[in-house]
Every structure is written in C-alpha cells, then in structure tokens.
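Can you make up a polypeptide sequence alongside its tokenized fold?
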Amino acid sequence: MHIAKDRVVDIEYVLFDARGRVIDGTEEGETLSYLHGSQELLPRLQEALDGRSAGDGLCVELRAADAYGRRDPKKVQVVPRSAFDPRRELRVGNQVPYFSPAGVFTMWVAEVDEERVVLDGNHPLAGRDLRFAILVNQVRDARPEELEKGRTLDGDDGESA
C-alpha cells in the first residue's frame, strides 16, 4: 500500500541539523504515526513521503523556509523578570504563556537573568536547514474515527491483539 491522503503512516526518523548533528528522532523500537494529508507533518516532508511504501527509506533535506520558517526578530520580546512570579523557576528552553493585546501566545525562554527574560515566539528550529532520514514502517487506511478527528488515535494501529 502506498502513502496517500487519509492513510495512517508509521515512520522511524532521525532529524539532523545542517552540520549533521542529531537534533531529534524516534527512540529505538518506536515509531511516529501520523495521518497523511492532515498537516501533522511539515508540508514538504509529506510531499516527499507521497507514494512511498512500507520498507522505503529516504533522506529529505529542507531549507529553513520549507521547514519551520525563517526566524522573525519581531517574535522576540524582552520582559522584566519581575513580570513573573518570583517562585517560578525559569530556565532556557521552558515554554511560557505570553499575554499581549493580540492574545495569548506560547513563547520559549531564550535567556534569563536577575533583571530580564528574553522570550522567543519563533519555533525552536526556525531559521535552520534540516535533514530527515526516514524509514517507512507501515501504511494503512485510516479508520472513520481517525478521519473525523483528523489525526491518528493514541497510536492504536487498528489491529486486534
């Protein structure tokens, strides 16, 4: 069976940065399941997987603009440390809500010291060229309830035990 819209796909992957350093990936013996065409994966990544079958391996290189976009300096805000509860431990990489007149946004703590906190609304991988090494493990038709929800359901592959 080939990968196409409304099929559930199980993949193993390793994500590398432009220098070949591993950034992320599935753990050994684990897979990532997604509903093809549901925008769960980056669009260019889904395009590269179209038509593939179980057992296929591929390497996909994405420029930053085709991955998580370019970094937008307007999405970086410097906030006084006093704006946060003093008991709250803030560490680089933590997600925090940012309240603005335009709404509430999830931001990443980029820097923190006694005086200020630098919050970044860019995706952590924005501005980075990426390379995915992918192995397609399984392809199956999505169940009606998965199509209705627009995603796979709890990693259930639909097979009886």
